[in-house]
Amino acid sequence: MADALKEKILRQLIADKGREVKEATPKDIYYALASIVNEEVKQQWFRTRKYYKDEKLKEVYYLSMEFLIGRLLESNLLNYGMLDEAKTALEQMGFNPQEVFAEEHDAGLGNGGLGRLAACFLDSLASLNYPGHGFGIRYRYGLFEQRIIHGNQVELPDYWLTDPYPWESRTEEEAVVIQFHGDVHMYKRNDGTLEFEYKNTDKVMAVPYDIPVVGYENGTVNTLRLWSAESIFSNNSDRLEGNKQFYRDLAHEHSIEQISGFLYPDDSSYEGKELRLKQQYFLVSASIQNILKHFKTNNRMSLSKLAEKVVIQINDTHPSLAIPELMRILMDEEGFSWENAWQVTTKVFAYTNHTTLSEALETWPTDMIKSLLPRIFMIIDEINNRFCQGIWFDHEELRDKIPELAIIAYERVHMARLAIVGSFSVNGVAKIHTEILKKKEMKDFYTLFPDKFNNKTNGITHRRWLMQANPKLAELITDVIGPQWIKRPKQLISLLKHSSDSALLEKFNQVKHENKRELANYIKQHIGITVDERSIFDVQIKRLHEYKRQLLNVFHIIYLYNELKENPNQDMTPRTFIFGAKAAPSYHLAKEVIKLINTVASIVNYDPSVKDRLKVIFMENYNVSIAEKIIPAADISEQISTASKEASGTGNMKMMMNGALTLGTMDGANIEINDLVGDRNMFIFGLSADEVLEYYQHGGYHARDLYNTDDRIKRILDQLNQGEFGVHNIEFKDIYYNILYHNDPYFVLKDFEPYLETHELAERAYRDRMTWLNMSVTNIAYSGKFSSDQTIQEYATEIWKLKRK
Ligand code: 26Q
């Protein structure tokens, strides 16, 4: 097998580069292998499309501003069933497979959880033979590249397209026109109905780039279609240089290309930027036009039956303008009445919410929408009027609440309200999250539309996050329970039967140890710090947010350091704290926390009195590929958000599946992990969501009392305030003030003591090797529940009503 592939690679190298293997670089090999995979995939891609068309299957479209797909060569090889063969071939040719795969630039077209979820969902849709495709934007710049300079985060542009991207194909024939601005003219037809015409609009071309989404060993290949913004006139060769108009056109072209220029960072202190709104409409208008055209060519049915063949999932509110956009096309281009258009629209859309932070719910100034999208604004206004009238007449008990329910209120358009009203399904992403939506955040909407609300707990693809990232563990699991778990991840549960077999546990230990050694080597190479591979690898990897409480983790590290300084000979299991986190560029406090982590690292890592018992590692530029290196090596998974704040979390699932034990609060999907493995197999601490919400109702707790009564806390905060961790004593004062003068809004001090105690428990458990390994294997055994295959199965049967291929 590997020989045949080697032969193909040789031929491809000569065809592409005119080179032999001995002259080839890893990059040449990467491109040769990608071409070979593409060639194979093309056939299946065509056949899948044809099958969907011939069988007239209902299809789901996942609309998302983000798809954080990471690298594709290795995962495509895996799903296509060629990974082992390819690795052998590469090794025999004298190449390190990981080095070849690393030639691919990560496609970082997402911020974090929401974007990575979209990528896992596409993988599961294809792997389960479901007709489902993604629509997104082909940003020229992905999420910024993070560098740490003197402890500070510095952002560099992520130009990921420097080298040709082998997975995309431009499909110019399917380009569509998007219109912004302009005037709306209204005419009365003879039958009294209204006709709308748009004049003087700015037109932009949306050109699709298609990426194949390869299912796992099943012949299904779906499509991720990413839109790129181009000027309609960009091919106009008549234009003369030197002409004034030429430069105006160039500037115009540039402003159009900005629409797919870069991905906006997730930003809590964000006020609506018009360019972001343009991006959102650009995505939804292109996608809806495309979906309708596809429906018409595949089905000889009236558009009034659209919902029989099409369902559109909107990933958070970011693509919620798809609702008025579909209304617009049905009415203004297809001649539907309002009532008929609304009938169709509200059967097509389903909305997923990803946050309980009400301050993070998206709104836009009415003026901005009115001027950028005049016709869309008219439609939103009409949806709003009809909705508010409905409440007034049919729900007297909610009349007072109209300002909090209205889609347009106080000069702003509330996107979540639009999404709820225009969809037939509204789902949260973990049990507790959905409950909080129903009982608090969206309580009145739940009263109005109880049947729309449902839960779909998130998941992760075990193909990338176990089979690909941790091949040694995957192989060991297959040795123990056979390969059925690969297609049926819930069968990982069979591991339970073996979780007390000490000889076997030793093998699991060995795998974890090898993964830790590999990560230690990577850290040595890239950061230059030696970490003890027998130390506890304690990992917190996620976006930096106050509510995720990286600060609580750092306070614990400072506490341990203070203890060691005080009592240098105390017995302590060596620990390596590993962080990965990007902060939104304008999120000041988040950046201060990054600086604090790096500053503490620079002190702790080099203090001889620590005697290597503590190491703190901040992994620069945390992304999908770095996650793939860290997760298989994790012993402890830090999931320590202020209870009620983390909608679900998905890193918690990835680390569980790789045998790490969760140390966390009862929040998001941690609760569902706990339902499965129980308190015995994880480390739970801290306030519950109910307690947190109760405190908020009464204006918080008294943070200063804890400062005054707990010496450990006082010491740490004073160290921050007095500049003990900084060159200048101004550093970290903002953190100090935020906690003491803003009354510790995320309960860092309140949860500090239980957090320390729980860490002590975890340390003791770690020393009891067999107990620890038993807990670890128990976690792996239950993790099949969190395969995104399970999640997609639930979306497909309960929301989308899809048939498999
Ligand atoms: C906001 C304003 C302007 C520009 C961008 C944004 C923006 C972008 C991305 C706001 C939010 C996001 C992403 C949110 C996100 O990733 N949420 C996470 O979703 C995961 C998948 O459901 C959950 O597991 C996490 O709990 C949730 O935080």
Written description of the protein model:
- The chain is of the alpha/beta class.
- The protein has three domains: 1-55 and 72-105, no CATH class; 56-71 and 106-458 and 793-800, Rossmann fold, CATH 3.40.50; 462-786, Rossmann fold (3-Layer(aba) Sandwich), CATH 3.40.50.
- It has 33 helices and 25 strands.
- The strands form six sheets. Strands 1, 4, 7, 8, 11, 12, 13, 14, 18 and 19 form a ten-stranded mixed β-sheet that branches.
- Helix 1 crosses helix 2 (26-54), helix 22 (550-566) runs parallel beside helix 23 and helix 29 (711-721) packs across helix 30.
- The model has no long low-confidence stretch (mean pLDDT 95).
- The structure holds ligand 26Q.
- Ligand 26Q binds at residues 111-114, 117, 264, 266-267, 270, 276, 354-355, 429, 458, 646-650, 668.
